[in-house]
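Ex. 9. Protein: Carboxymuconolactone decarboxylase family protein.
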Amino acid sequence: MARISYSNTGETAFQKLLGHNKEIQKQWGKLEETFYQTGSLSPELKEQVRRTLAFGNGCKYCQAKGRPALSHEDSRISLATAFAELFLKDRMSINQDIFDVLAEEFSEAEIAELCSYICFTTGSQMFGALMDLQP
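Predicted C-alpha cells for Carboxymuconolactone decarboxylase family protein:
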C-alpha cells in the first residue's frame, strides 16, 4: 500500500495517487504521452534510460519492469544510459565536455529531448519512491 490512499481518478496506481489532484494527473499524463508518442529518440532507448533511472531513483513500481540491459549494440543507447547514470550519480559534474560527447551521436533537438525525458522520468520515479508505490 502506498503512503496515502488511492483516488478514484486514473487507471494505474501511479495515476490514482496523482489523481487526488485531477488537473495535475491529467497534465502529467499528457506530458508522459507526449514523450512516448513524439520525438526522435527510439522507444528502446527511452526504455533503457527509464530502467536505468528506476534503479537509481529507487522507485520499486518502476523497477518491476526489469533491470536495464548490461550492454547495448546501439551506441546511442549506450551513450544515453551512461549519461543517465552520470545524472543519477553526480549531476553536478555534467559540463560542456559531456554535452560535446553527446553531440557526437545526437542532434541538439535529441539532446534536449533526452535531458527533458530524464528530468521528467526522474520526477515521476521520485514521486513513486516518495509515495512508496509498490508494483
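Check your answer against this statement. Residues 108-130 form the longest helix (23 residues).
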